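Appendix B. Raw example, untouched.
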Amino acid sequence: MVAIIDYGAGNIKSVENAVRYLGHEALLTRDRERILSADHVILPGVGAFGDAMGRLKKYGLDETLREVVERQIPLLGICLGLQLLFESSEESPGVEGLGILDGHILRIPDGEGRKVPQIGWNDLRFPNPGRLFEGIPEGSFVYFVHSYYLRAKDPSIVTGTAQYGVKIDASVESGNVFACQFHPEKSESVGMKILGNFLAI
């Protein structure tokens, strides 16, 4: 069973539909015991960093997610879910993230001909091997919707990058923790392959 963290953030149903399309049972939940008994856990999300952290704490999901990591249950953060795994975000000064991974979330800089938020397709580079990208060629395109991007403290955990005025750390892997700034559930066949790779771990 795949537990999808339900904390009131957007874009949860599309992740649920993608998991079921791949033949797995999906459960939208904020129940600690159900989350900790899952085979895989997904932290999706679209919205503001500070609001999302407030909801995670309100439901006690911050501690549950740390326990997921301690128990070595495969965890995948998507979009805002990636950002929440790190220490802080320029979007919400003074708000601490989960701190499961080391790094900070920065705003995409404005630039000529560059719209913020980035909405659309971008190609990936693979600076380090990543289990999410097995069988996927470098240069494959995935779908992004974001105004903020990750700068990971440890470059060795970065498995996918993209360029959008700056280098975006677009995917990370550390032990049983995986995350994508892009939306695999909206990235057609490449995205389904990425989700399938995660669910096979």
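End of appendix B.
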